[in-house]
Protein 1
Amino acid sequence: MQIGMMGLGRMGANMVRRLLRDGHECVVYDINPATVEALVTAGAIGAASMEEFVGKLTKPRSAWLMLPAAITSRIVDQVADLMEPGDIIVDGGNSYYHEAVDHAARLASKGLNYVDVGTSGGVWGLERGYCLMIGGPDSAVQHLDPVFATLAPGADAGVPAPGKDAGTAPFGYLHCGPSGAGHFVKMVHNGIEYGVMAAYAEGMNILKSANAGKRQRTADAETSPLENPQYYQFDIDIAEVAEVWRHGSVIGSWLLDLTAGALKADSG
């Protein structure tokens, strides 16, 4: 199907590439003409203005915004002014879920559909796919299902076809509920993500100091000697530990993949 993508940063551009690879038609717009041109070369249809972007979409129009949260509300209103009843605006950024609820109510009065899609995929989303947490009207979400199915990791991740009543969650995308539900789930998701990142940092720091028992320390009024230095005599290769954790460990994730890569680069 056809989808418009506005905001062609790393995630937005790679989402377009993934969609193009699966045969979808993508109309693209960004304030940076070079990013538009790069995707035109890859097969997308470019637009040089917001008006041209909306004008090149076929009815019912579907425009997906991948923008910084600080400007999303303003751009949503500008795009909405160019659209007609039955059209769909998708916000795939990290917007506050209250705003999604408010946008949906305001746009519904104009006959427009608003779909909030919490999008998680990181730097490897192009190849691995994107986990999509979706909120919005049933009809609009169903209309966009081919796009969600392409962007999600299911087919590429080797996930077996779910049973008749299993739904889409096994493929990596889920209609979580009405408008705002997608960004609400993504907000909780991000809280968990940041907690995991903090845990990785604390754990790696402990490993970094595992040889503290070998260090000579001066005892003074502000520094006490290590109580049991014999228990801290390990020279641990942190980069190799991160690498082994990536393979089969229950704490593995793409966040750990990034950590392992960074540690390898630093040790190299």
Protein 2
Amino acid sequence: MYDGFYNLSRKPFQLNSDSDFFFKSEVHKRALAYMRYGITQGEGFIVITGKPGTGKTMLIKQLVNSINREKVTLGLIVSSQVGADDLLRVVATTLNVPYEGEDKATLLDRLERFLVDQALKGKRVLMIVDEAQNLPKTSLEELRMLSNFERSGKTLLQIFLVGQKQFSKTLALPEMEQLRQRVVATYQLKSLNEEQTKNYILFRLKRAGWQDSPQFEEDAFPLIFHHSRGVPRKINTLCERVMMFGFLDELQVLDRTVIQKVIDDIHEEEAIEAEDMPNNAAVALGRTGSGNLEQRVVALEKLLAELHQVLSTHHNGLKP
């Protein structure tokens, strides 16, 4: 639609993590450097954290594309609430280690033999866990135990843990002391500043074949930064809406007035959605302010958890 109207080769602000659109901000270059440094060490845990939308998955894709598969065997897990025993099966599946309902001891033995076999072939094994904040502490402990496998004094399995900011709080717990001792490096992704936000937008436009159509006026960028707070995913969401607005109104110039109109539309839609929710949900969302979607989602998740607990208690009370 708008990409044809503006003679673009593709949509510049799509939300999927396309490595062609990897923006090498100072923050992301440093995070990638930490990850590559970790690979050279060949042992321990590397921990990367950041708020939702700051580009963690994009970083993983960029790293994966640069890994020499002749020297490194790679496994990638997008985690959920996976228990310790299930985690071992997920690891085995990811590394293509066959198993047929074996008990835990047998599965561990299979995994160790696989890691040793890779080492004999001159290859190291790297496991990347995305959304690591979803892993229970027991599963993190299981990963730590897997990192204990060694041969001739060399670690057979290296693990990268990539997750949201709250994952740092999990690692700080007293019971995570042994895992923390295995962390080789850690880095927290931060949002873009105002200048980086502008450069990010222009970079993505140029990657999509942009020839100054539409033209972004200078006064548009500070407003985009203020609304998005420099979070790449939020920048993409807003700019996608702006480009569509420009297409529908056949605009060749996008200025502060256009950006503000789109932002107002977004706020209006969010207010309508809040009105359509149950009263308690609307109140919970309202406490965080209509402009911060991330906080509102967290508030809603908290409310749903409370409702689930109430329903469970009521259900248990009905049992004979």
Protein 3
Amino acid sequence: MTESLTVKYLGRAEYEPTWAAMTRFTDERTPETPDQLWLVEHPPVFTQGQAGKPEHLLFPGDIPVVQTDRGGQVTYHGPGQLVAYPLLDLRRLKLGVRDLVTLIEQSLVALLADYGIDAEAKADAPGVYVNGDKIASLGLRVRRGCSFHGLALNVDMDLAPFGRINPCGYEGLAMTQMADLLTKAPAMAEVQAGLVAQLVQKLGVKQGIMPARTSARTAEH
């Protein structure tokens, strides 16, 4: 039996309610619960991973800081950034955590290649990079064999807030985005569709029926 992946489009949604909703989904799911992929843009927010150190928050200013339970260090989310949360039963898919990280990175590299952007992953620094600049970040959590949290791809956003932190705990790490590497910024919906196609192909699953765009509050149903 081929597993299915239901894609949920949340539009623009606040970070904390979305985090609470994916946590509920993960805690309440059963071995029969179909996997989901949530796609969202967040209003400006800094999020600290479990390994996050206060010294990497240089001057957050008026942007809120949220301490989360995902892996990794501090990062920034804002409009124009594609955030994707793969809510997967890794045991059912026969994937380890490292396998999932590699699969996500490969999906992002392939997606960017479709736009003529030559990107790569680094063995010692999770995420995806273009000429040494970071274009996509990863931060996952696995509970009861199921993944939540996920990835953030810079599409067409204000990168300035990254200057208020040491992104992912790296001092001086430069960030980039698709809009700065192309003659024309791609539409978010187009990039979302490309990411979905890559993840579905690499996970070896079929895409479930897409519901209407919904909110984080109702996304788990």
